[in-house]
Each structure stands twice: as C-alpha cells, then as structure tokens.
Amino acid sequence: MKDFEDVQRLLRLKRYESPGELYFKEFTDSVKERQRAELLKRSSLSLFGERVGMWWSEHVDRKYVLPAAGAVAVAAVGTAFLLKPGEGANDDAPPHPLAGVFLEPDFDTGGDAVETIELSLPESGANIPGAAANAARTAGSPPRPEGSLLPTSLRSSLREL
Amino acid sequence: MSERAPTQREDPDADLVRRSREGDTRAFDVLVEKYTPKLYGLVYHMTSNREDTHDVLQEVFAKAYRALTRFRGKSTFYTWIYSIATNMTLNFLKKRNRRRAMSLDDIDLSIENDPDFIEATSKSDPVREANLSELQQRLNMALMQLSDDHRAVVTMFDIQGMPHAQISKILGVSEGTVRSRLFYAHRQLQAYLDDFVK
Question: Rounded to a whole number, what is the largest CA-CA distance in chain A?
Fold first, then answer.
C-alpha cells in the first residue's frame, strides 16, 4: 500500500535494533544451563521416587498392608471416640484450673464421722526429756525473746556467721 | 480438509526435533542458537523492553523444551515455537503495567547504509534532522500506542517480514483478519508519526 509506504519504511529500520552477538551467545548459554539444571532436578526426584518404591517393595509384604492400615484407622477412630467429653457436662461453667490434675480420693470412710485431733504444747514444769540440761546451760543468759526457739549461746554463734 | 503435516524436506529441523525428544540436549541447543535472534526480535519489538524480553524468552525456551513431547509436527518447528513465543508475550503484556518504561537496544550503525534509511532521510527533513536515538524513541513510542494484537501483526509483517499466511497460522486468525489489522495499525502509526512521514 503506497499510502503507508513511508510508515512501513520507518518500521523496517527497527531491524537494526539489536542487543549484539555477545548477548545472544550468553543468552543461549544461560538457556542450556537452566535446561541442564531442570533435567538434573527431574532425574534426582525420579531417582528418589524409585528408591522409595524399591525399599517399599522389599520391606513391606503387600498382603499385610491393607489389614494394617485398616487396624490403624480403627484404632484412631476408637481413640477419638473414647476421648470425647461425657454427656451432661456443664459447658457454661469455666473449667477449674486444676481440673483433671488431681483425682478424687477413692477410699471408703465406712460412713463414720471424721474425728478431729487437737495438738498442744506441754505445760511448763512437765517432765520433758533434756529439759533440765537445757535449763542449766541457759541459766544466767538473757531471757529468750518471745517466739525464739534457739538457745542464746547458739544464737550468738549464728550471729557471728 | 485436514492440513498435511510438513515433510522432512519442508521442516529443516525435523531431525533436530526428533533427537531432542529422544533426550539429546545438544540437538536442542542447536535449535536454541538458531532461533534466539528471531524470537528475541519478536518479543523485543512487542515489549520495547530489553529486560522483559530476556525474561520472557527464557520462559519460552523452557516451555518449548517441556512441551516437545506434545509437538506433533503438524507445522514446522519454527512456526510452533514462534506461536509459543507470541502467546506468552501477549499474555505477559496483559499482566504487565501499561506504564512500564521502554528499555531499548542500541542501533546497529550499519543502518546508515540501509536503502530504507537513505530514502527516509532524503524524503523527510524531520527524519534527516533527527538523530538516530530520537528516531528510535519516536518509532517505539508510536508502536506502544497500538494495542497488543495490532503491534503483533506489525512486528511480524513489517519488521520481521513474515507473509500473511504464516501470520494467520501463528495467531490462529484468518488472513483477512491479518490484513485488516495491518491496515488499521498502519493508519494509526501514520497519525502518530505524522511529522516524520510528511
């Protein structure tokens, strides 16, 4: 078309736009590298799959595979069923922090009432083993402060520590 | 009527393709070296961006290698891989940001000896006065104004010199559609390059 001859002439000049021969050489090298890498990856994956398949066929007797898989499936379903929470549980109340940690004591009191035993210290002057020796040791020492359980001499030793 | 598959004589790459499919990587290397310049030109003129061209072309050859087993020989290998490159470029352009900046290749200085260049500079003052870089910018900007489909037919016909029949086979459209797209594209380009072609 003569009308567009000038436009087409200019368009043909775009053939001179080029990255150069060196670029094409490097590009084709990079394509080859990528291709080799993909082939290597594909072959290592297929090799791995082959090895797994070989091990499986050597170590697993096929006639036991299905029954074993079935047994595992039944055990899994049964366990899930047993661990399901019981009916009638009070879902509204928040769980106790220690729920499930302690078990209720499982003993029979026999229906008797629980007896309370009170403990008390003996009165002063009562016959207590070792009391006389202790009294001689602490004679002349300052009175023991209230609440203190240690003899004065021992308290001094400890203070030095 | 079914299309007759090209014979060995019609497809010069038949032997290389057969060997490539049998696992001969060196045979595929030869095909890559042979068609990289042409496919580079296709993708580059459609994208006007060197970096995008590099990326797309890498994917074209990777896809072609993987798809070799599905190549039935109904067309020549060149037509087949050219179709892959065209489709992948069109898909890429659909996803690409339309404001992507141009990144242009250098111009081979032997252009100054080209008859078309000599004719263009003798007939048009603006072309004569513009330096090569400016001319290149204007041309590429005008091309980028076209739609992707129109740019594809202009690239194949005007820049790469492909006949209408081959373009129609590659794009999967009739020859009439190829001609009408070319007419519309030329008219658009003439408007964009009005000051250069008067």
Answer: 139
